[in-house]
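Structure in, sequence out. Go:
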């Protein structure tokens, strides 16, 4: 990519989870046809297509506008990620961490929520990422037919020529993150910005967490690596097309967007 393009002032600024939410919004039909939306006895739909589309659109707009969203599951995932980074680097993280090796407990407090993780489980996870650079901020511009887009975000772990993103989930099926955009955005940013010359692959390292209840407070889990080869030219094309569709959505709904950072105005 030419130096002049890299120096252009972007017209839009996107991070991967916004692209993920827009991806979901493009598939309202899946949510409508999902078995959770059907009465198992009558087969009737619980919500209409229009109701689901409205809900998904509002959820997307709330993310764009950075409306605060409280989620215990998200806080648990953040706490686990912080524990892994702390055990790798032994440096302060966002989460307050207390280790009790003898009791096999790591007490993690984040956002006024406290979780109890198995120390052995966390150490095994940290060992998997040994030698990684953690929480690396990256950004790069992407040319589109509507102008340049700045893509940005924090990489969980970077080790040699592989990018890792740590996911926590209460339910896992292989291919869960196939349509995720982190696997395109982060390697693209690394290479385009010149931080690295080559990225071979991207791994969503998923952890199916168990426990965390009043009956079983200690949280353990099972690791499921989901690996994808990275092709820079292919990802650039996919990103450009997806971002262009997102831009079209943004412009149509510009009057509903209060946080102007996405338009590179902040």
């Amino acid at each position: 990519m030419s130096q002049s393009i890299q120096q252009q002032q972007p017209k839009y600024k996107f991070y991967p989870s916004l692209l993920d939410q827009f991806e979901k919004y493009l598939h309202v039909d899946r949510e409508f046809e999902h078995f959770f939306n059907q009465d198992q006895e009558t087969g009737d739909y619980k919500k209409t297509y229009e109701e689901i589309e409205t809900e998904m659109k509002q959820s997307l707009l709330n993310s764009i506008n950075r409306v605060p969203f409280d989620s215990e599951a998200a806080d648990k995932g953040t706490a686990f990620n912080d524990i892994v980074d702390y055990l790798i680097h032994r440096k302060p993280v966002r989460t307050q961490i207390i280790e009790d090796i003898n009791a096999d407990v790591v007490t993690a407090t984040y956002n006024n929520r406290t979780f109890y993780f198995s120390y052995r489980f966390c150490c095994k996870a940290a060992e998997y990422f040994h030698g990684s650079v953690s929480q690396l901020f990256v950004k790069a511009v992407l040319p589109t037919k509507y102008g340049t887009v700045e893509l940005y975000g924090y990489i969980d772990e970077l080790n040699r020529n592989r990018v890792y993103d740590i996911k926590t989930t209460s339910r896992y099926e292989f291919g869960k993150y196939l349509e995720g955009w982190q696997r395109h955005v982060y390697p693209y940013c690394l290479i385009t910005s010149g931080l690295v010359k080559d990225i071979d692959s991207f791994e969503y390292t998923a952890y199916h967490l168990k426990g965390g209840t009043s009956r079983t407070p200690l949280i353990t889990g099972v690791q499921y690596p989901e690996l994808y080869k990275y092709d820079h030219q292919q990802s650039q094309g996919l990103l450009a097309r997806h971002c262009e569709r997102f831009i079209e959505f943004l412009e149509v709904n510009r009057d509903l967007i209060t946080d102007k950072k996405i338009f590179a105005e902040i």
